[in-house]
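ok so i was messing around last nite and threw this chain in just to see what happens. nothing serious, just curious
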Amino acid sequence: MHPVIPYVIAAGMFGLGTYGVLVRRNAVLLLMAVELMLNAVNLVLVTADTTVRAALPHSGQVFALFVIVLAAAEIGVGLAVVLQLYRLRASIALDEVRLDSAPVPNGDPDDNNSARHAATTTGAA
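result:
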């Protein structure tokens, strides 16, 4: 097999992942697009390892293994963030996430329920 074919496939995968990151509004689909980009990088690393004679044997495969470990950690942290976002906002749409203020539990910013909530969670009356 000619080595250009995996490079073209990897470029297509990376392009689709980039498109997914830029266009998707759902947090889970955004994480899937990032995973697609990381898999494209893995394909390039393994293809380069098999086609290029390097001083260190199988170095591309070792780097690909590190990228797989990094992707697993990224998905673990990313899904934890998505679950927390869903618990706070009841939605995982990234368009609806406000980054400038903290969430208000009942929707009324003038109500002072935060002190009462803090007292009940710490066990004080």
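not much to say yet. The helical segments are 4-23, 27-51, 59-89, 113-122.
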